């Protein structure tokens, strides 16, 4: 009798675990995981992949560099941050970025907007020199002194900054969020691996001829 009761309970548990759900009910993350849920949300339009990438960029890489007073020169600390940004950006060859320039409140509004733009362009030019296509970078927006991090009319380094943000996708790939997206993302990596093997093979042939 005890064995029969245990068997009934086991069958009930299995039946409950395999119970069908109505169409349209939320996916059970115990079986499908958050990746499936997010992919479904992106396809349906409930979740923006641009927003997801923007949040990932902001969490994985410093997005801000600062400047000396009345200067658009990139110091060593700024270059180190931009190096990290360049490394991250290279992983996503279909993504576009904007660099926003800011100043502190010292000086006229007209001068500060010009200075903020020069700072943004300095950051963009550095990223271009480190392998990022200029077509993927935009430095046309300058907030000047209008969006300070610290509310003060005095000199404040934290307000003298540029901020790099994800802005969207390269137009030719804007609809590529399908099963081939991973292939697109890792294209440069795959090509570099092939080039390295080819070079090694050619070097071996040259060595055998010497």
Automatic annotation (TrEMBL):
Residues 54-170 form the OmpA-like domain. Keywords: Cell outer membrane, Membrane, Signal. The keyword Hydrolase does not apply. CDD domains: OmpA_C-like. GO terms for cellular component: cell outer membrane. It comes from the Bacteria. Residues 1-19 form the signal peptide. This is Minor outer membrane protein Omp16.
């Amino acid at each position: 009798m005890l064995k029969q009761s245990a068997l009934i309970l086991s069958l009930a548990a299995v039946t409950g675990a395999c119970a069908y759900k109505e169409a349209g009910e939320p996916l059970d993350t115990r079986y499908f995981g958050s990746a499936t849920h997010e992919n479904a949300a992106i396809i349906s339009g409930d979740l923006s992949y641009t927003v997801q990438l923007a949040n990932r960029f902001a969490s994985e890489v410093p997005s801000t560099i600062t400047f000396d007073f009345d200067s658009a020169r990139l110091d060593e600390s700024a270059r180190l941050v931009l190096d990290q940004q360049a490394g991250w950006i290279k992983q996503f060859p279909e993504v576009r970025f904007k660099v926003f320039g800011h100043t502190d409140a010292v000086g006229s509004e007209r001068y500060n907007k010009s200075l903020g733009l020069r700072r943004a362009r300095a950051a963009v030019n550095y990223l271009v020199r480190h392998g990022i296509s200029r077509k993927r970078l935009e430095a046309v927006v300058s907030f000047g002194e209008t969006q300070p991090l610290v509310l003060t009319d005095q000199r404040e380094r934290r307000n003298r900054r540029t901020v790099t943000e994800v802005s969207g996708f390269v137009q030719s790939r804007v609809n590529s969020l399908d099963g081939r997206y991973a292939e697109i993302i890792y294209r440069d990596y795959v090509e570099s691996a092939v080039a390295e093997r080819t070079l090694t093979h050619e070097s071996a042939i040259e060595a055998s001829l010497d």
